[in-house]
TrEMBL record:
Residues 219-291 form the GHMP kinase C-terminal domain. This is Homoserine kinase. It comes from Persicirhabdus sediminis. PANTHER family: HOMOSERINE KINASE, HOMOSERINE/4-DIPHOSPHOCYTIDYL-2-C-METHYL-D-ERYTHRITOL KINASE. Keywords: Amino-acid biosynthesis, ATP-binding, Cytoplasm, Kinase, Nucleotide-binding, Threonine biosynthesis, Transferase. Pathway: Amino-acid biosynthesis; L-threonine biosynthesis; L-threonine from L-aspartate: step 4/5. The lineage of its organism: Bacteria, Pseudomonadati, Verrucomicrobiota, Verrucomicrobiia, Verrucomicrobiales. The gene is thrB.
Length: 317
């Protein structure tokens, strides 16, 4: 086990649920994402020495910080909680955005520390520790952001309790247009407005669509993917929190999107598209809808990110 003195990592944004897979399906995109830098220090224990890009909102106390909690959980598991480690967190995506911001910090924190100490665990083995970190932020236990952020690709979770997951190879030409309108939605609030029970008819439809989406991904069948991107459970409730949601959906579908829905708990929305050109056109149309009501927004166009969190070089600006 070789040990480096400093490790810098990037953890990407993720689109959770992917319409019909509430809490059980997600994928990563290339950008935006969070960066974490860790280095050994003489002083025992994990200390967060710097956080940027958070407008002063994140605690420096490691046991209260998503990235810190995930890393501490790993160090505790390895009996290394006294190892002196300094951590810097550089937030490069907004909070409450539906882009898996807390998951990215948790994944970056635990992955960076694991690398620094010589990589005793595999990426997949880091999943429960990253989950603990994310759960400390949103109070819920779901791997649909953390899973793809860590592993990349499209991740299906058979059971969040058992952390039984499968990573699917994305179809070659599958692209995403993700638009983040500048409002904040707390995941906790977006979960509270969901129905406690659902109609059998809706459960059947959602199961059919989730199965269809997974078959479409595996068989690279864009028609099947398109017919399957529907959410009859969360979207009807959550769309109320997103201004112009149905206009954005109409704009995306008329511009040729395969499907459109809410990214995670929102307010970001996403469209899956066949090819980059289509994704750029669809993304611009969605963005225009928010522009029309003077709602600032950011557009991210990306293929499905196949690698998840990784080590990077360089300095922070
Ligand atoms: N699956 C989660 C939800 C994602 O929809 O609440 C939140 O990040």
């Amino acid at each position: 086990m070789s040990q480096q003195q400093e490790v810098r990592v990037f953890a990407p944004a993720t689109v959770a649920n992917v319409a019909c897979g509430y809490d059980v399906l997600g994928f990563a995109i290339d950008a935006p994402g969070d960066e974490v830098v860790v280095r050994f220090s003489e002083k025992p224990g994990l200390r967060i020495t710097k956080v940027t890009g958070d407008d002063g909102r994140l605690p420096l106390a490691a046991e209260k910080n998503t990235a810190g909690v995930a890393a501490l959980d790993l160090l505790k598991h390895l009996g290394m909680q006294d190892r002196g480690i300094e951590m810097e967190i550089h937030k490069k995506m907004p909070f409450g955005s539906g882009l898996g911001s807390s998951a990215a910090s948790a994944v970056a924190g635990v992955y960076a520390v694991n690398k620094l100490i010589g990589e005793p665990l595999t990426k997949k083995q880091l999943l429960p520790f990253a989950m603990t970190g994310e759960a400390s932020a949103d109070g819920a236990w779901h791997a649909d952001n953390v899973g793809p952020c860590l592993l990349g690709g499209i991740v299906f979770i058979r059971s969040n309790q058992e952390l039984d997951i499968a990573q699917l190879e994305p179809p070659k030409n599958l692209w995403a247009a993700v638009v983040h309108p500048d409002i904040e939605i707390l995941t906790k609030v977006a979960r509270e407005i969901l129905p406690e029970s659902i109609l059998l008819e809706n459960a059947t439809q959602q199961t059919g669509n989730l199965g269809g989406l997974i078959c479409g991904i595996i068989q690279e069948d864009y028609g099947m993917i398109s017919r399957s991107i529907h959410d009859v459970i969360a979207e009807p409730r959550r769309q109320k929190l997103i201004p112009e949601f149905y206009n954005a959906k109409r704009a995306a579908m008329s511009a040729g999107a395969l499907g459109f829905s809410i990214s995670g708990a929102g307010p970001s929305v996403f469209a899956l598209c066949e090819g980059e050109e289509s994704a750029r056109k669809v993304g611009a149309k969605i963005s225009e809808v928010f522009d029309k009501i003077q709602l600032n927004n950011q557009l991210y166009v990306s293929p499905i990110n196949k690698h998840g969190v990784h080590v990077i070089e360089g300095e922070n600006k």
